[in-house]
Amino acid sequence: MAEFVKVAKRSNIQPGEIKSFVVDTEVIAICNVDGEFYVIKDECSHMDYPLSDGILEGETITCAHHGAEFNVRTGEVLSLPAVDPIETFEVKVEGDDIYVLMEDY
Ligand code: FES
User: Fold this and answer.
1) In testing the pocket of ligand 1, which one of 44, 51, 86 has its CB within 8 Å of the most ligand atoms?
2) Is the separation of the CB atoms in 17 and 64 below 8 Å?
3) How far does residue 60's CA lie from ligand 1's centre (Å)?
4) Residues 37/3, Cβ–Cβ less than 8 Å
5) Is the CB of 61 under 6 A from ligand 1?
6) Domain residues of the chain, as ranges?
7) pLDDT given at position 87
8) Residue 105 pLDDT greater than 90, yes or no
9) Is the per-residue pLDDT at 26 higher than 80?
10) N or C: which terminal CB in the chain sees fewer CB atoms within 10 Å?
11) What are 29's strand-pairing partners?
């Protein structure tokens, strides 16, 4: 069953920052895009390296390993060498707490 899980404090993730978290068996990355939080699976769809090693500019994350780009809000792939989208997660913020909707939690 899907459940919102408290994962992080918003005050610990500054605008433009990406932080990786392990939740149960899933590795996710929380991205702060100018105060809006988006959550992606922390795994590039090209060769599975962590996207949290990359650079976030606006809604676009650039993989540090071979330069593929993705939209962190939609998961859409924006440039090669990746061709598949990345998984995104629903997020909600309450006070200073960031909750992520995890399937089968
Ligand atoms: S692993 Fe991300 S571009 Fe290759």
Assistant:
1) 44
2) no
3) 14
4) no
5) no
6) 3-102
7) 98
8) no
9) yes
10) N
11) 20, 40
Q: What number does the ligand 1 atom closest to the CA of 81 have?
A: 3
**66: Cβ below 6 Å to ligand 1?**
yes
Q: What is the CA radius of gyration of the chain?
A: 13
For residues 57-79, give the mean pLDDT: 98
Region 21-32 average pLDDT: 96
pLDDT at 104 > cutoff 90: no
Q: pLDDT exceeding 70 applies to what percent of the chain?
A: 100
Give phi and psi for 52, each to the nearest 5: -70, -10
100 lines ligand 1 (CB under 6 A): no
**Predicted pLDDT of residue 1:** 86
- Domain 3-102, second-level architecture: 3-layer Sandwich (2.102)
49 lines ligand 1 (CB under 6 A): yes
Using a 6 Å cutoff on CB, does residue 63 contact ligand 1? yes
